[in-house]
Write a structure and sequence with these properties.
The complex is a heterodimer of chains A (158) and B (97). Chain A is built from 5 helices and 5 strands; from the N terminus they run βααββββααα. With 158 residues, chain A is of the alpha/beta class. Chain A has a single domain, classed as Mannitol-specific EII, Chain A (3-Layer(aba) Sandwich), CATH 3.40.930. Chain B is globular and about 30 Å long. In chain B, α1 links the parallel β1 and β2. Chain B has one domain: 3-Layer(aba) Sandwich (Rossmann fold), CATH 3.40.50.2300. With 97 residues, chain B is an alpha/beta fold. The chains are: A alpha/beta (158), B alpha/beta (97). Chain A: Keywords: Transferase.
Chain lengths: 158, 97
């Protein structure tokens, strides 16, 4: 199946520095807004949504969080990916009293409510691949990061 | 009539879509096709009645009105997914008799 998604190199940010989960979410969502993928209100919405329904996913290190917000606020479907040298604590999606030290943030900007199953499943594929997670964490440039993630998202390789 | 599974996540769109689609294809492979409905976690208590099973990603501690409940996170992370799929299969299989 063809996945209709534009990936933008400037949305792949290796070795970010952030104080906490809100900070990294703000940085990534601001980048999405500045390039025009989301509306300005997406920034506040995704921060609020993370507080209500956290998106930290429990796994071996490096752990992943997948913040996302209402599709109404998205102009065009894409993902923004940031890696963190120093982990920040995200709350666990399934047990919000717990926190998870996250080093890979995959922010989903999904423009259609039901049309992106395939893309989401591919994101889940990244989450489940421990070697890929480590490679992602070790990427030093936007290009390297994009090159690691693009095949998984667009299905060029398997 | 196929068994009906309610799948819920924060907004009823993102992670529940993945989990619902994985459950449908797993159950189809098992020869027990199911219908899935997605909803927001907040809306579960008002909607869940009459479903054969509730699966959620995200914390849920509301009322299920006696509907069996399985945590769907392992399907998303892959960690322990086999157990979760088997649990779902067992509940639906029992339901179907």
């Amino acid at each position: 199946m063809k996945v209709d998604i534009d990936l933008d190199k400037s949305l792949f940010l290796p070795h970010m520095t952030a104080d906490d989960s809100t900070d990294v979410i703000e940085q990534l969502s601001t980048q999405l807004y500045e390039i025009g993928y989301v509306k300005e209100s997406y920034i506040a919405a995704i921060k609020k949504r993370e507080m209500e329904y956290p998106t930290g996913l429990p796994s071996k290190s490096p752990a992943v969080a997948i913040p996302h917000a209402d599709f109404n606020l998205v102009n065009k479907t894409t993902v923004a990916v940031g890696t963190l040298e120093k982990p920040v604590e995200f709350h666990d999606m399934e047990n919000i009293k717990k926190t998870i030290p996250v080093q890979i943030v995959i922010m989903l900007a999904i423009g259609e409510p039901h049309g992106q199953v395939e893309m989401l499943q591919r994101v889940v594929g990244i989450i489940q691949d421990e070697k890929l997670r480590n490679d992602i964490l070790n990427a030093n440039t936007s290009e390297e990061l994009l090159n690691l993630i693009e095949p998984s998202l667009l299905g060029i390789l398997n | 009539m196929p068994a009906r599974i309610l799948v819920a996540c924060g907004n009823g769109i993102a992670t529940s879509t993945v989990v619902a689609s994985k459950i449908r294809s797993f159950m189809e492979d098992k020869g027990l096709p199911v219908d899935t409905t997605q909803t927001k976690l907040m809306e579960v208590p008002g909607k869940v009645e009459g479903f054969d099973l509730l699966v959620t990603t995200g914390e849920f501690d509301g009322k299920t009105h006696g509907v069996p409940y399985v945590k769907g996170m392992p399907i998303l992370t892959g960690i322990g997914a086999d157990n979760t799929f088997n649990e779902i299969y067992k509940i639906i299989k029992e339901k179907e008799g």
